[in-house]
Structure formats: C-alpha cells, structure tokens
Amino acid sequence: MSEQERLLVHNDYEISLIDILLFLKASGGNIVKSTSLCLLVGGAYNFSVPKMYEATATIEMATVAGEQVESAAILLEKMKLPLYFSTATLQACGSDGGLSSQAKFVDKIKPTINKSE
After folding, report:
1. Terminus-to-terminus CA distance in the chain, angstroms?
2. Cβ atoms 111, 80 nearer than 8 A
3. Class of residue 102 by CB neighbours under 10 A (exposed 0-12, middle 13-18, buried 19+)
4. Phi-psi region of 83 (alpha: psi -120 to 50; beta: other; left: phi over 0)
5. What is the mean pLDDT of residues 9-22?
6. pTM (predicted TM-score)
7. φ, ψ (nearest 5 deg) of residue 68
8. pLDDT average, residue stretch 11-33
C-alpha cells in the first residue's frame, strides 16, 4: 500500500470538528427533549416527596470530682418539660415559641438515653 493510499484510508475514518458540530446540530431536538424530560421528572420527584431531615447528637454529662452533676435520666425528663427550651431556641428551630409548639418540638426531637452508659 502506497503512502497516498494509506492517507486516503486514514482520512475516511477521521472525525473533524465540523462533523461533530453537524451531529450536535442534527441532534439538538433530542438533546433538548431529553434535558426537559429529566428536569420535569426530577422536579416532580422533588415536589412530591416530603422533606425529611434527621440529625443526631450525643450529650456528654458534666462531671465534677469524678461524679456526674446530673444524671442522664433527670436531664431527659427536664427536656420533656414544656418550658425547658428558651423561646429563642424554639424560634431558631422553626417553632413560634408558644406552649403547644414547645410540646410539639419535644415530640419531634425524641430525646432518648444512650444504652451504652
């Protein structure tokens, strides 16, 4: 095979930038349709699923001279009291600060004692 024939064969398999742009131009409708469909399905899923946020925290009890200042059970019971959390804390967590919202807040946070103590 001569050098000229090899170059001709090589040029048949070469893809140029113009070929790529022509392909994208011809496929533009499919690209727009696919993107729109994915955005529509993703948006429908985002608005139809309820918002669920979950966080956990571990509170270590204070100790003075090797003894706990307050037991975990007592702190747990205090946290269940309606006036334990300040109004500023409740407002920062999205409650209006009323007594009924304080009770709902305690029900939402579900304080429990860690079994490893």
Report:
1. 83
2. yes
3. buried
4. alpha
5. 77
6. 0.41
7. -70, 140
8. 86
